[in-house]
User: Fold this.
Amino acid sequence: MLIPDDNLAAWTGHWLTVACGCGRKVHVPVKLLVREHGPAASLPALVARMRCKSCNGRVADATMTANPQAGAVGYAAGFPFSGTRERA
Assistant:
């Protein structure tokens, strides 16, 4: 795991990428974690408490990234639509 021993306030412009052993991977904006846990919350302690929504397992890998979509191939779900889709 590449999680710095720091508080959330130091990483507000970044995303926390968390992966589980079952294959599920999520990108969480640190700004959201600050809003829910406060800027002084310890990043390693928070990651240690996280559980997978699919299998309830512990975090297998966690990294910090400035942009989780950098280098991504293809389109995001719903692209180019924003908001609700029109149905035919």
Remarks:
- Residues 30-37 form the longest helix (8 residues).
- Residues 14-65 form one domain.
